[in-house]
Every structure is written in structure tokens, then in C-alpha cells.
Automatic annotation (TrEMBL):
<dbReference type="InterPro" id="IPR006369">
    <property type="entry name" value="Protohaem_IX_farnesylTrfase"/>
</dbReference>
<dbReference type="GO" id="GO:0048034">
    <property type="term" value="P:heme O biosynthetic process"/>
</dbReference>
<dbReference type="InterPro" id="IPR044878">
    <property type="entry name" value="UbiA_sf"/>
</dbReference>
<feature type="transmembrane region" description="Helical">
    <location>
        <begin position="26"/>
        <end position="42"/>
    </location>
</feature>
<feature type="transmembrane region" description="Helical">
    <location>
        <begin position="171"/>
        <end position="195"/>
    </location>
</feature>
<comment type="function">
    <text>Converts heme B (protoheme IX) to heme O by substitution of the vinyl group on carbon 2 of heme B porphyrin ring with a hydroxyethyl farnesyl side group.</text>
</comment>
<feature type="transmembrane region" description="Helical">
    <location>
        <begin position="92"/>
        <end position="112"/>
    </location>
</feature>
<keyword id="KW-0472">Membrane</keyword>
<feature type="transmembrane region" description="Helical">
    <location>
        <begin position="220"/>
        <end position="237"/>
    </location>
</feature>
<keyword id="KW-1133">Transmembrane helix</keyword>
<feature type="transmembrane region" description="Helical">
    <location>
        <begin position="243"/>
        <end position="260"/>
    </location>
</feature>
<comment type="pathway">
    <text>Porphyrin-containing compound metabolism; heme O biosynthesis; heme O from protoheme: step 1/1.</text>
</comment>
<protein>
    <recommendedName>
        <fullName>Protoheme IX farnesyltransferase</fullName>
        <ecNumber>2.5.1.141</ecNumber>
    </recommendedName>
</protein>
<feature type="transmembrane region" description="Helical">
    <location>
        <begin position="118"/>
        <end position="139"/>
    </location>
</feature>
<dbReference type="Pfam" id="PF01040">
    <property type="entry name" value="UbiA"/>
</dbReference>
<keyword id="KW-0812">Transmembrane</keyword>
<feature type="transmembrane region" description="Helical">
    <location>
        <begin position="280"/>
        <end position="300"/>
    </location>
</feature>
Amino acid sequence: MTSLPASQAMLPADWRDLFALTKPRVMSLVVFTALCGLLAAPETIHPVLGFTAILCIALGAGAAGALNQWYEADVDAQMKRTRSRPLPAGRLDRQTALHFGVGLSALSVILMGLATNLLAAAILLASILFYVLVYTVWLKPRTAQNIVIGGAAGAFPPLIGWTAVTGDVSAMPVLLFAIIFLWTPPHFWALSLFVRTDYAKAGIPMLPVVSGLATTRRHVLLYTLPMVAAAVAPWPLGLAGSLYGWTSIVLNAIFLVLAVRTAMNRAEEPSGMKPEKQLFGFSILYLFILFAAVVADRWISL
């Protein structure tokens, strides 16, 4: 980690810059999957406590995002996709980002423990530490498997939402965790295929930078297969009903077709990577619909 150029003038900052540190687009997916885990749980929680639990998960995710940007400010400054963020653009200083991230982390974990239970608070703390220390500091700058292992960081929210209600961990939230964990590599590798020059310039060893396009495309397909298995599993295991089951089959069939098309693509330039872009775009929709189906299936069975 290096400092930004001393000659870079600090521009005026406002609340929008602090909000940008929380990675709000990423947070929206975190909040949604956490809410689905909470609503799909077999028990009920008081609406105020449920809202507080989701707020804590959002704050924890925002804290992790802020600490990630604090650590990677110099890397973000080298990438076209991230150089307009508050730190590389000079609208905030690193100390502010660090204090903001640590403060949000402490607030989210303590409030979760007080509002729900200690297990949910412990898993929330583990998710923040995993994202910041294991993924950001250790894995991302060192290995092309950063997304494979680091995917666990984004898989915690539905597990935390479920645990906030029940106080324990069972098979269904573990499967929800597994779905996101296995979804993360094909999702991010699809993105990295058409922005690989950004990663190469910043010295981040993403798979297409280290192993090339063909290998990355094959890995997209290979990691899609266990994801499909995990996503369909709740139905035959009796953990979800037919609404979820058929929704999952349709979504996974589309995902698998796009993954096959990606694996078969031979384009070298971003302009020829239509399958990869389609897969990346659909992968976000896939997760939203799949987790919405978890909740819908649970509520129609009541």
C-alpha cells in the first residue's frame, strides 16, 4: 500500500463521498440477500428488530467497502473503472476513510449483538474481517484464486439474516451461502474478461491476466456446474417447494447456456465479448430472482 501523490489537492468532500465509500451498488445486493435470508427463516422476528438486523448488515458491508477502498486507494487510482472514487480522486483523505470504516464496523457488530443474538454478531464480524484481511489484504494482490476463496465474504449476508432470526445455523442457510460462494467466480471472471487490461495495469493477478482468456472462460463454465447443483439442491432435499425448484431450474439453464457460450468464445478484444457481457449482466438478475424465489416459496407454504 502506497500513498497518493502529495501534490494532489484535496477537493471538498460531502456526505456523498462517505456514502460512496460504502460501495452502495454492492451493498444493495448484500441487503437484498440478507433480507431474503431473514424472511425465509422458519421463525419470525419483530419488525423493528428485523429492520435493525438488516441495517447492521448494510452498515457492516459498507464498513468493509470503506476499508477496502482505504487499503486499495493507490490501486484504484490506476484503474479507469475506479479512479473517480473519493480517495483516488482526492475528495477524501485516507485517515477519514479508515476511521469511518472502523467506526461503522464496531457500530454494526455491537448493535447486531444487542438487537438479535451473539451468533449473528459474530458471523457479521467474521464477514467484515474476512473481506478486509483475507480477501483485500492477502488474496487479491497475491493469487489468481482471490475470487474463488474471497467469494465467501459476499456469501455471508443470507446466513447472517437467517441467524439473526433463529439464533442457529441449519442446512438451508448453508446452501444459500454456498450458492453465492459458487456464483461469485463465474460472475467476477465474466467481468474480468472484458476489463482485464485495467487489472493488468494495476498489477492485480486476476485469472485472465495470469492464465489468459481461454483458461478463464473454461473456469467460468467449470465453476458454474457446482453452482447449478447447489442452487437446485434445496428442492430435492425437501428444503424448498416446487415454486423455488422450477424457478431455479429455468434460471440455472439460462446461466449454463451463457457459460457454455462464454467458454466457446474465442474473441480477444472487449468488442467481441458479447457472451461474457451477457453472462455478467444476467448473473446479477439471476441472484435477485433466485433469492426472491426462496422467500416467495417460503411464504406461499405458510
